[in-house]
Amino acid sequence: MTVETPGTQAPVQPADTRQVIRPYGDTTGDGMVQMSFTLPIPAGKRADAAALQLAGKMGLDPASVVHAKPMGPDFTFFIVYGRVGHLIDYASIPVPEERAYPLLSSQEVNLAIRGALNRRLVVVGACIGTDAHTVGIDAILNVKGFAGEKGLEYYREIQVVNMGAQVTVEELVERAKAENADAVLVSQVVTQKNAHLHNTKQTAAAFHAEYPTAVAAGMGRPLLVVGGPRFDTVTEEDLGVDRIFGKGTTPAEVASYLVHALLPGEAVREARQADDDEGEDGR
């Protein structure tokens, strides 16, 4: 039996601030997930059993093979559906940092460059190594752009040199020097055996070697920017570049970053103010 001293209260228990969630498949909170993988074995019932054993070891219980397709005589692609017992406390996940620079309109970008440089900002872009996929670099550079936004070719004050695919590091460095580039954009879509990481490190090393007296990006050497779908496990410091952009990046984000990284902040503030004033005059 607990006796409380008159005038005292039991300590207040802290509120439960957790936000526990689990995967959703057929009904809310059922924990069902779908995953795909390839095993180096011929398709068949024995292969299905191997896929289910792997799924079980990964925590899916029960699990079922909902799709199995041969990939040549010695490989099989699987899609497995099953339940996991894992929970996530969503409230404990920190909110990602916001963009460190404002997202600018094309008019603001043009005004900032014209005001700060009194010339066009030169951007050289390429897919390097054996990567023949230009979809990424074209989405950022070509005037047709991506996600409803026009590419950097659309910006009057940006001069774009798109070298295309399968460009060697030596060719990229040489062209960047010849064009007196302010920024170099490298797209890497092919990621087998971490080729994108090796190629990017090689590129960064080549540029740092070519500009040994450079103080920083824009101060003796071009700004080095790399983009692609699988750079989320590394940092700029790991690769020796100034900026990494991941999947879903739009031309406006890249243009805004170039202005933020290469131009003085005062030029950006003046460009935004001038754009605001012009908008008010037009109303």
From TrEMBL:
Matches recorded under PROSITE patterns: B12_BINDING
SUPFAM superfamilies (UniProt xref): Cobalamin (vitamin B12)-binding domain, D-lysine 5,6-aminomutase beta subunit KamE, N-terminal domain
Pfam families named in the record: B12-binding, OAM_dimer
Domain B12-binding span(s) in chain numbering: 120-269
Source organism superkingdom: Bacteria
InterPro entries: Cobalamin-bd (IPR006158), Cobalamin-bd_sf (IPR036724), KamE_N (IPR028991), KamE_N_sf (IPR036843)
Protein name: Cobalamin-dependent protein
Native organism: Actinomadura nitritigenes
